[in-house]
């Protein structure tokens, strides 16, 4: 086998591993971005723990096909880059959306979340999710409400019992 084919196979395996180990991925068309804008985008991704890479579409097609995500391949037209969310599944979508808001040349194409291909609307919806800490607080707040209500009801019954016993005690003292 030639060295070029071995190199391409290694890149396909690298992409497959990133797809498998990532919680999400977002595909963007970076055509029209200046070098400074691309550097800024890469910096934002790096700070959030997101891997941002440019691969050949043909190599990405092989990798996504091998991972059972063939429907993703329809989005692989033109110059593309892909951002892999290793730690935070929302980070690639949120950073891409925020950056595209200020830089019209960045086009979000599609994404993958937990092994499912999502379209542009899905990526935007993912980006609009509140941060993980806020979601956890909302869930805990929702769980805490009924528990607090139940505790207040129980406390009210105990309070009424104390009032009744106190009234009986005062009546007997007279």
Automatic annotation (TrEMBL):
Gene3D superfamilies according to UniProt? 3.30.70.1730, 6.10.250.290
Hydrolase as a keyword of this entry, yes or no, is no
GO biological process per UniProt: translation
Keyword field = Ribonucleoprotein, Ribosomal protein, RNA-binding, rRNA-binding
Cross-referenced InterPro entries: Ribosomal_uL10, Ribosomal_uL10-like_sf, Ribosomal_uL10_bac, Ribosomal_uL10_bac_type
Which Pfam families does this UniProt record tie to the protein? Ribosomal_L10
Entry's transmembrane regions = none
* Molecular function terms from GO: large ribosomal subunit rRNA binding
Which cellular component appears as one GO term in the record? ribosome
Q: Which HAMAP family match?
A: Ribosomal_uL10
Q: Which NCBIfam families match?
A: PRK00099.1-1
Report quaternary structure and partners.
Answer: Part of the ribosomal stalk of the 50S ribosomal subunit. The N-terminus interacts with L11 and the large rRNA to form the base of the stalk. The C-terminus forms an elongated spine to which L12 dimers bind in a sequential fashion forming a multimeric L10(L12)X complex.
Q: What does this protein do?
A: Forms part of the ribosomal stalk, playing a central role in the interaction of the ribosome with GTP-bound translation factors.
User: Could you say which protein family the record assigns here?
Assistant: Belongs to the universal ribosomal protein uL10 family.
* Name by which UniProt lists this protein: Large ribosomal subunit protein uL10
Record the organism. Paramaledivibacter caminithermalis (strain DSM 15212 / CIP 107654 / DViRD3)
């Amino acid at each position: 086998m030639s060295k070029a084919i071995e190199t391409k196979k290694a890149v396909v395996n690298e992409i497959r591993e990133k797809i498998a180990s990532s919680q999400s991925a977002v595909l963007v068309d970076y055509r029209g971005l200046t070098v400074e804008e691309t550097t800024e985008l890469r910096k934002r991704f790096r700070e959030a723990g997101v891997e941002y890479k440019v691969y050949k579409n043909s190599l990405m097609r092989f990798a996504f096909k091998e991972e059972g995500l063939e429907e993703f391949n329809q989005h692989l037209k033109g110059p593309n880059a892909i951002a892999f969310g290793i730690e935070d599944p929302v980070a690639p979508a949120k950073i891409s959306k925020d950056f595209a808001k200020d830089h019209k040349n960045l086009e979000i194409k599609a994404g993958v979340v937990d092994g499912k291909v999502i379209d542009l609307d899905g990526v935007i919806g993912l980006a609009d999710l509140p941060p993980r800490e806020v979601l956890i607080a909302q869930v805990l707040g929702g769980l805490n409400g009924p528990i607090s209500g139940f505790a207040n009801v129980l406390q009210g019954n105990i309070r009424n019992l104390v009032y009744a016993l106190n009234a009986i005690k005062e009546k007997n003292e007279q």
